Each structure stands twice: as C-alpha cells, then as structure tokens.
Amino acid sequence: MVIIRANASCAALGIGLSSVPYPYGCSAHCQSDSTATVIPSNTILPTPQPTTAAMASSATTHGLPPSVLNADPGTFTKGGTPLSAADYSASASVPSGAQKFPRLSLPVPMMRLEYDAVVIGSGYGGGVAASRAARAGKSVCVLELGRERWPGEYPVSAVDAFGELHVSGNAAANNAPIKDLNAGDPTALYHLVLGEGQNAFVANGLGGTSLLNANIFLETDERTMALEECWPQELRRKAALEKYYDRARSMLQPTPYPEDQPELMKLELLKKQAVKMGLADKFYRPPQTTFFRDGLNSTGVEMKASTLSGQDCTGVNDGSKSSVLMNYLPDAWNWGAEIFCECEVRHIKKDPSGKGYIVFFAWYGNKRNRAEFEDLFHNELMWVRAKELCFLAAGTLGTTEILLRSKRLGLHMSARVGQGMSGNGDILAFGYNTDDVANAVGRQTPPKDDMARPVGPTITGVIDMRDTKDVLDGFVLEEGAVPQVLGRFLQTMLEITPGKVYPTEKGGKYDRLRKFFARTETRIMGPYYPGCSVNRTQIYLIMSHDDNQSTLTLEGDKAYLKFNGVGRSSHVKQLNEFLAKATHAVGGVLVNSPFFAFLGQEEITVHPIGGANISSTGLGEDGVTNHMGEVFTGAGPEVHDGLVCVDGSIIPCALGVNPFATITALAERSLDCLAAKYGMAIDLETKNGKLDLVNGKPRVRWPLTEEMKEAQESILAAAGESGVRFAEVMDGHLYVGDEIDDFEVAENAAKGNGSTARFYLSVDTYSTKNLVTRTDHASMATGTFTCSALSKEPFMILRGEVQFFSPDTKTPDTKNLTYKFDMTGTDGRVLHFDGYKVVNSGIAFSPSRTWRATTTLYVTITNPDGSQVARGILHISKRNFLAEMKGFGPLGDVGLWKNLAGVKAFLSFFSLQTAAFYFSPFRRLQYPAAAGTATISSIPKVQPTKVVTVTAVDGVQSTVHCWRPLQSNPKLPPILFVPGAAVDHQIFALPTIETNAVEYFLGKGYTLYAVTHRVGKTEVAKRGYTIYDARLDIKAAMEYVRADSQQSKLYCIAHCAGSVALSMGLLDGAIPAGWLRGVTASQVFFNPKFATINSLKASSPVPMPVVYKKLSGGDWFDCTSPADSALVQRVTDQLLRFYPVGGTAEHPEGCDSTTCHRSELVFGRLWTHDKLNKETHDSLANFLGGISMNCLEKLMHAGNTGNVYDNEGVSLMNESNLARLKGVPIMFIHGMNNAVFDPESTERSYDVLRDAFDDDLENYQRLTIPEYGHLDCWMGKNAYKDVYPFVLNHIGDVTKTADRENPLSASTAHGRN
Ligand SMILES: Cc1cc2nc3c(=O)[nH]c(=O)nc-3n(C[C@H](O)[C@H](O)[C@H](O)COP(=O)(O)OP(=O)(O)OC[C@H]3O[C@@H](n4cnc5c(N)ncnc54)[C@H](O)[C@@H]3O)c2cc1C
C-alpha cells in the first residue's frame, strides 16, 4: 500500500486544517507534485482502527472512529424517499423504464450544519476534490445545482429533451440585445448560456458536464503548457502534470475506439478526409472514456459496453460512459462524502470565527424557486459551514459567478475575477451532404436490421494539427454525432443556415442529381435513411486557441457573459478554410453552426474556461488563483486558506484541445498540493472492491446525530409510500425580548420597532398514510428563518417538525398546526422556534375566520434553556398561499397513480379536518360518558382531609370538604369556598387542571373548607330550593369552620349564586358580618345584572322557565343528558347545535359538547373556551348538575332587575340591611368576557358599598380579569397564574390590616406571593 504524504511530521489526521511549515516557502508547493512523498503506509500511518466487514482488510482508516465506519448510512431515492429492497431487486429484472436507479445523493433535510470540506459542483473538479478529501479522512459535503440522473434516465425524445433545457443570459445579436433571459428549470440537464460574442453549452447534474460530453481524453501539449504569459512556472515545467494525467487516466480509464469494434462511417470518413488533405499522419483514434466491454471500472462500479448509439451529448443511456457519476463521485460516496443535489451555491463568506467558510446556497427542493418567491429564493439562503476546505468546482461559469458575488459581498480577492476567459477556440460546423455516408445521427435503439451500421460514440477520430510553427495556430479537428433529438431538425436547420461554403469545383449533373435525391430522401424518409443527405453529413468540432479576452460580469445580480470575437479573428477564418477544404475533399457543403450564421458570427463553446485564472506570476494582480487553485486575497501572493478552485475556471488560456483531461489533472494536483500543505494523507491505494450502489453501504459513514437518526427513521419508515411536498413562506413581526407574553401585544410592539421576521420552509411529508393515520407522525421542515433583530443572516432550519391538526391538549375542541424546530445562526447561535396555528369551532361557517385560523402562526422563540427570546405572529399572504398551492406536489418515486393517491389523501385530510370545524354545528355531539366510566384526570390531586355534613336551621344538610395544609399556620384565617348554582366544591378542587384553587391556597398554608349548598350539584336542589335558601347552608358551614378552626373569623371566597346567597345572608342578618375577615365576591354580589344574551332571554315574552320546562319535561333542567336519554332530550340536544355559541367576532367560540350547550342555554356561556383545557371540557358532566325551575325563575327575576329578593319577592336591599355589611372588606373579581353576569353587576355593588361606607373606602376593591369569562376564573387551566394570586393578595391585605388593628393576632406569615 502507498499513501501520498508530503511530510511525515504533519499534523495528525482528522485535525483542523493547519498549514504545515514547508522548507521552501509557499511557492515551493509548486514542487510538491514532484516532492510529495509516496511511501509505504506501514511506516507512517496511525494504527488502523477496526473496520466494517465490508472494508478490505488492508484498508486504512485515517483514524476514523468505528462509529464513523459502522454508522448506518440509509439509502434514499429520487426526491429523498427511500427505495425498498424490493425496488432494488426489481431494478435488476425489470425492463428499462420501470427501472429504479441508485442515488448517491441524500435528501437535503439530511444535511449537517458543518463539514471539514464543502465541494461546490460535481463535475471533474468537484469529483476529484470530493473523492480525495474524503479519502483523506475529511467529512465532505458536495453541493450540486443539478439533479441526480443515472444512465436510463437521460432524455431521448424531443419533448423530454426540451423539458431539460435551461436557457439564460443576454444575447446581443445584431445590436438587439435580449436581456435577462431565463427560460426553463435552472436544475435542468442542458444549460444554454447566451452571451455577447459567444455562447456556451454546459450541463447541470450530478457529474457535471461529464454527463454530456463526448468523452475525449487528450492531454494539453507541452508547448501550450509552456506559454509564459499563461502558466506559472510550477506548471510550465516539463511533464508538470504527467503524474496527474496518469492519476486521472487510472480513474477515468480512457481508451481509443477499439479496432475490434464495428467499423464506424464517420470515423472512416474523417480518416478519408485526412488522407485526401495529405494529413494521414495527423489522424488517429483519441483515447475516450467510454467502456467497450462489460465490467467493473476503476472505482468498482458496474459498467456496460457501449451500444455505439452516438447519444453521449444528451446523456448516453447504455451505462458505458465513464462520467464522473461513475467513478470519482461513487468513490467519494464510498469514503463518506455526503452529496446533495438541487443546491445552487450563491456566495461564500469567511466564517466569523476566522477559520473556514460559510457557503450560502439556494435549494430548489419543493419548488422553492416559484416566481412568487423570486425575491426570497436568491436572498434568503440556506448555508453550510466548511470548517477547513471549500472547493469551488461549479464549472467555469458557475465558479466565476460565485466568486464575483462573494467579492461583491465582501470577500477580498483579485480584481481579475471574471477576466481573461476563453471559449477554448471551439468551432462547431457541418460537412453537409458529402459523397460519403457518415451515419452521424445518434440513435437510442437502432432497428435490428440496422445494427450493422452503428453510429459509434460521439467522437472517435481526430486530425491533430497542434504541431504548427506557432503554437497558437495549433488546433484539433474531431468528427462528431448529433443526438437523436436533433436528427429530425438537422436538415431544415442546415438548409436555412446562411453563409454556406460550396465546393469551388461544381460537380457534374449526376452529382447534382444524387445530392438532390439525397435531400429529398431525408425529407421523405427521415434522417436515418441510408444515403440521405443527413446520413451523409459529417459533424465537426474544432478546438483551437482564441484570444482569452472574454469576461463574465455581474449586472444586478445576474452573470453576464461576453466573449470578444472568436468568430471575427483571422485565425477563425483560417480554421473555416481548413473545414471547407476537408468538406470539399469529400464533396460536401460547409455549413456553419447556426449561432455563427444567424447571431452575427457568434460561436458556441462547449468548453468555456477561465474566470478564476491561475496567475502566471504567482500574484493576484495577474490572476485569481495560484498554481494550485487557492484564491488570492488581493493583488499579492496571499491566499484565502482552504478556499480552492479546482475546475475549468482556473485554466488561464485556450488549450487547443478538449479540456477535461487537463481539468482533472490540475484538480488532482491541487489536492496533492493541499495534502502537502496541510499534512493530509490521501489514501489512493485502497481499492473499493465492487461497489453495490443499489443495495450496498459506503465503507465510511459519519455518524448521525440523534435528530438525524430520527429523521432518517421517519424517512425510511415511509419506504414505498407516497408523500407530498410544498414550500411555505410566512412573515410578520416578532418582538425581541422576554417582557411581553401576549402574542398580539408582542406583534404590535414589534411593528412599532420594525422587527420583521419570516420563515421560508420546504415541508416534506414522506408518507401521507402515516400523516393521516398517526398523530405522532410529523412532516419535516427545511429552510431558513430571518429576523434581522436576531441575526444579520438567515438561521438554518434542518429536520424541523410540522404537525398538521394535532389535538390541542390544553384547549378544548381545538386542533393545532404546529411548527417546532431548532435553528442555527451563522455565528453558531441555536434558538428554538415554537409556532402554532389554532383551528377550532370558532371558524364555523366563516371563510374569513377559516383563512385567519389556518394562516396565523403564534410564535415564541426561546434559548436552549427555555428563556424567551422573541414572540409575535407570522401570517401567510394570499400571494404566498397561492404559490404554496401551486408548488404543492407529490414526493417520492412510487409511480404516478400512487403519487396522485398520496396527494389526494393529503388534500382530503386537510379539507376534512378543516371542514370538521367549519361545519362544526353538524358534527357528532359529544355526550357525557356513562356514569362511572369517565376518566377525569391522570394528574394526582390533593384529597380532602375530611368530608363532613352540616345541617342548616331548616334541617337541610350540606357537605363540607376540608383540607389542612401539611404545616398549618394558626395566624392565617381559614378560607371557606362557596360555589355557585348547579356546581359543587369541585370547581375549586378541579381534578383536571395542573393547579386548582384548593392546591394553590393549601400550598400557601391556608386551611380550606368548601361547602356544597342546596342549589349546587346536589340531589336536594331538585326540591326547588332558592338561592335565598342557600344562605342558610353557608351560615351552617361557617359555624362549622369557626368551630373546627377555632378561629372566630374566616375568609370567604364565594362564586356566582354562592356569592349572591352570601350577600343575601349578610343583608338579612342570617350571616353575621362579624364572622368574616374578608370576602372575594366572584362575578356578582347583590346586584345581579345579566349579560346581553341572558337579558334578552330574561325579558322574552315567553318566560324562559316555561321553555325549559317544556324542554326538560318537568321542574328540573339537567345540564347533562346522556346519549340514550329520552327522545325529547335528544331532540333538545340536536336543536341546541344551532344555539349561538357566543364569543366575539375576533374570538368566536363553539363546541360539540351537549353539556356545554345545555348549561349555556340556562345560564349563558359559562367560560371562554380557550381558558379551559381539553380534559376539563371533555368531563364537564362530572362538574355540572342542573337547576330547578323555581330557583331559575327567581334568579332570572333578580338578574333582570339587578336586585336581590327574599322568597316572597321582597327586596333585601335597604339601608338598614346594608348597614350590616359595615367593616367587611370585599374584593370583587369579574371576568371581562363574562357572558352570564355583566361586569356591571360587581361594579354596581362596589359603588353601592363605597357610597354607603365612604369612610371605609379601602375596604373595597374591584378587579376585572381580561379574556376570562365566568367559571373559568376558577376552572381555567391558567387561573392559578391569572386569577388566584389576586385573591391571595387580598387575603394577605385584609389579614395584615386586621393584625395592625389587633396586634395581639399579628402574624408574620401571610402566605403572600
Ligand atoms: C457536448 C459537450 C461535449 C464535450 N466533449 C468533451 C470532450 O470530448 N472532451 C473534453 O475534454 N471535454 C469535453 N467537453 C467539455 C467538458 O465536459 C468540460 O470542460 C468539463 O466537464 C468541465 O468540468 P468542470 O469540472 O470544470 O465543470 P462541470 O463539469 O461543468 O461541472 C460543474 C458542475 O457544477 C454545477 N454548478 C454550477 N453552478 C453551480 C452552483 N452555483 N452551485 C452548485 N453547483 C453548481 C453544475 O451543475 C455542474 O454539475 C464537452 C462538453 C460538452 C457540453
């Protein structure tokens, strides 16, 4: 085994990139190719680590830990969905078309945030960089703009091929510039770049232009390499690249068209032309990277023998082409490189740490580049960090554009970026309708009877004219083939193209007739007809030396290509004369390429080179990169450490021959030099063995993080399933700071200070089936989040979680669309994004509310420790929503019908979920569970210390629940809770919320009691007792409390009817005011005033109790009615569907609980729904009873008149009664959204008391609780935060006051917050 290693004292492998001191200074690296040590590995390598079974026993491990070598890589197909084992085995047996193809690339959601090396582009340069860096033990990421396509997937038909054409640029033909053309998909395979003066044709795809080229592997001649004005001295040396050509050869395996293969007519024709021109010795079969036999290639990939189809230039489908996709890239993959497609790198900047680079890219996944997102697509960029090395290999035009943009955005470099480019002196021309058959139109599958006349690979022969006196006059002429897709149009194109050069000697009559018939045959029989004019057309490609005076510049943000006049130089004239001579020698007509003829003598090159030219002097003033491709920081010799160009962009002048052999050799050399400079050991020795790209795993795989594993699992779990994908943009305002809790307040504050925010996400649902059937199944979000108040650059979002319609566990009858992810800033800051949309019955029958609910995202951003960073609201604009819908499409490669079914299933799921709320009044009613079967709560709750029965003076018995704190404080007053009508002590001791009132006050050291009086949820209530009667139970309970606690005064918390009963008892003297240390009167006291709907009901011409009597069928109206109750009850429940559910226009409410509807009918809406949690709402029947008609009638009278009465209807409100309340401190609390009693109720009582006792004003307080309704002030999930503390404060205040007035009872512990 041999390892290339420059310096045995180099830094250990796997460490960060640090330059190894080199004895001859920087420029001495030019020597590295000759001095890089090739020594047996066993003398210098670290001890090999354990390897996977798949690894050859001799393999080096580069010190990679076993976790890297053993990690499960996972396999993914097109679009990121996994390929099942069945798919793979099918691929071997099914005919082409139904085939599945291997994928080297990973779905972008599987990307990491940083790698040792990032490679931009995947042509020859990118392939070399990825393979060699990976073999040096670096973690490598390849970002490729195009898609991954394997032989069998390249277009053949015109329709398919046209769909794969991207045309961009500016054309300036005849002084009529076409500006900013951008037609077709930028990730398409064929890219025609229009420029001024010359145009270029390149490929985008995994493998770069190697996917389309004509395979000719020819070295640049030594005289060209010795041109002083072009090349630096390191490369001018004789055979400077020899070793690297060898290395490229060993990977790409070029071979001349074998003599034992069928004779090819175009090859024979070129030979004949050479002979006729006296150039027989210049003709030969050049080496080409085509396989002419089945077998494994250099990398261990299975290759197939060429079918000689001539289809190379649209992508040959027979598996014979030794493109980078078949060698360097699988090698990189096998050594752990992670490859991502459809990622267009836009610019690079230095990492803020000063070491490494941040590579910004636009990802085309999920149609993120829709016209509607145009402003964002190229601005809100995703990024990945290159910790040590960043290789630019996006091809001449791609790399130069990235450099230009990076320079503009602040990366220092030479002023020569984009200068001195060349079209490699390319000329395309045609020898039309010659005397001989050329058979040069590609044919995917020739008919059986025509198999004897294969087209052959695209190029097989060359007339090499490079030994001219002046090296710059040298050139090569090669014959070619046009792909099948152009065959049909060729004749028309050639015939209408102007500027034909006819033979000077006119042929005879017979000759003219033959040519006429040949043309007619093409027209009638098509381009393949033996002997027709197109069949007799020779295709020429010339590579020569142009003046390297072309440029690429950025105008706006678009690259503008300007080649200066290859078509106008005298040299071109000579070349055209040569072509004419060659053509006329075989009786044909020379036809120029249509670009030359129609576009003012413009040429089209397939070999654009330069833009990041290697400097001939080693200084940035003469070039952009040094001899090994490192990018200069300016005009001097200093370079950006680790930023290296390795593709055609560094070639400083036309080569006079096809360039990829030289591009590859230079890239191999760059990597070698870098290894020398940074002490990396590139293992070139270990062979891969057979690579199974279909079922196999790479030998090296960097371990997945936990969340990557989860993501992989969820992708793999979707094997064979159809999914959906779309891109979503939401923007709005986020307030940065932790002081605002309320989303709307935060949004408004953020609007005030201009703090905008946006996310731009691609959402992938890998399995629609899982999404629809499993609540734990999330979709995956990838993209960016921008908020300039948080970071200058976008945060990167990978593997985020989007849940559609997950039940809201905190709020009843509500579903959420949630967005949860960690996001990372370019400075390494990690924040958590938590967003949710709320969909509930409030949207019923309202398109505008439905739109608002499904497009409003409540967002909180937190630090990893949970502290709030920002809060606010994001929205979807109508434009972005339309774009989202237009871009919505299937995910996965499971066939058309399954894909369509997946999309349909998703859309149905979304529509049904929304419709369930939109048409919520028609939903199935939620009846209370059968008695004893309801599970109320899983939360452990404090149990009462005892439950006792107390007897009122009239003999009616009530229960009192008692709770003692672990450590009771005798200085604190006992608290008595008094619930309202139709409920019991549970409203204060609710089992379904995190902290109920009993737990809250118990925790503060109070001894607690709760009475369930006779109009509460009791059996005796059915006897028709009134609220007035209930005061006696309160009195009895108070007597018990005073005795049990041995305290003469207690504090009373009374709610609703309980509070009214207390006020009645105090007014008529049944309850002595002297027993009370203080009171919290919740929602009402002695001035009950109904809220609007209840008022309307109370003043209805038909008394409501009469209606209720009819509905209930008696004197008792039950708020709970099971599904199997009497018909009249079930009918009532069905009718109540349509009873207005209340809420405000802003926050409408609704639900399908029969208990909720029934209680609302008699009492009014008892809560603001989103203040309850789902468990409470689901088990309402456990907490609500009913009301007798007698009680209700009296209550309605009171609520209608705003007064309290005894059972005989005599008002209790008079001066002497009121005087009894003197000295009792009372705090009124009222939910602002109370729909039972209007907030005016407590306001009036508060005013009455303050008027009556104006010397004791401080005894009265009144508090309104925003957003709360009636019972939710006690039963709300957050009441312990929003309501109870106020009551606690009041108790503390009145106790302290009492202590001051009576120091003997002073206490230190008041249990205040
Ligand atoms: C029809 C045809 C025939 C040819 N025949 C021959 C031949 O016979 N012999 C020969 O030597 N040469 C031939 N060539 C030229 C040769 O293929 C190229 O010179 C060579 O492939 C260039 O290699 P590269 O590494 O510089 O870039 P490329 O191979 O062009 O690779 C660049 C890659 O980068 C990607 N990319 C571009 N921009 C970005 C971006 N912003 N972000 C991420 N990725 C990006 C592209 O999609 C592409 O995949 C031919 C070319 C064509 C078109």
| Count of extended strands | 44
Principal-axes shape call: elongated
Hetero groups bound?
A: flavin-adenine dinucleotide
Terminal CA distance: 75 Å
Largest sheet: 8 strands, mixed
Give the integer mean of the pLDDT values. 85
Helix content: 25-40%
Alpha carbon gyration radius: 42 Å
**Number of helical runs?**
37
- As a percent range, the share of strand residues is 15-25%
Give the class from helix and strand content and strand pairing: alpha+beta
Low-confidence stretches: 1-61, 71-98, 930-934, 1304-1313
Describe it for me?
- The protein is of the alpha+beta class and 1313 residues long.
- It is 28% helix and 20% strand.
- It has 37 helices and 44 strands.
- The strands form nine sheets. Strands 3, 4, 12, 13, 14, 15, 24 and 25 form an eight-stranded mixed β-sheet that branches. Strands 26-27-28-29-30-31-32-33 form an eight-stranded antiparallel barrel, surrounded by five helices. Strands 35-36-38-37-39-40-43-44 form an eight-stranded mixed β-sheet, with helices on both faces.
- Strand 30 and strand 31 (830-840) form a beta hairpin.
- The longest helix has 23 residues, at 896-918.
- It is elongated, with a radius of gyration of 42 Å.
- The protein starts with a strand and ends in a 12-residue tail after the last helix.
- Bound molecules: flavin-adenine dinucleotide.
- Flavin-adenine dinucleotide binds next to helix 4, strand 8, strand 13, helix 12 and helix 17.
- One of its GO terms (molecular function) is flavin adenine dinucleotide binding.
- This is FAD/NAD(P)-binding domain-containing protein.
- Keywords: FAD, Flavoprotein, Oxidoreductase.
- Residues 116-147 form the FAD-dependent oxidoreductase 2 FAD-binding domain.
- Its cofactor is FAD.
